[in-house]
Amino acid sequence: MGFLEIISMVAALAVTLGLFGLAVWGWKRFAPQGLLTMASPRQRRMSVVETLIMGAHHRLVLIKLDGKERLVLLGEGRMIGGDAGGDAP
Q1: Sheet of 58-65: strands edge to edge?
Q2: pTM passes above 0.85
Q3: How confident is the model at residue 89 (pLDDT cuts 50, 70, 90)?
Q4: What is the three-class DSSP state of 82?
Q5: pLDDT tens digits along 22-61
Q6: Concatenated DSSP letters for 25-81?
Q7: How many degrees, rounded to 5, is the angle at CA 36 between CA 32 and CA 40?
Q8: Whole-angstrom distance, CA of residue 45 vs CA of residue 64
């Protein structure tokens, strides 16, 4: 393989990557905003508010579900305990 063939391959790779970069830039610049966002338009019902690592295998998680906060204890790949969703201060 000669020196000119290596230069030719590197130049072809540079041109290909340059065209791909130009296409990505054009897509971000000129695409409609609705196509750029991946998020769903609906509101999510559940979110993780805070987590606290209790030990090597246990984690305390505060989640918000349908506007109410619930405390869940997770450990060793399963849910160990959680509140019943009562009114908490």
Answers
A1: 46-53, 58-65, 68-75, 78-82
A2: no
A3: very low
A4: strand
A5: 999 998 888 777 666 665 667 788 899 999 998 888 899 9
A6: HHHHHHS-HHHH--S-SSPPSEEEEEEEE-SSSEEEEEEEETTEEEEEEEETTEEEE
A7: 115
A8: 8
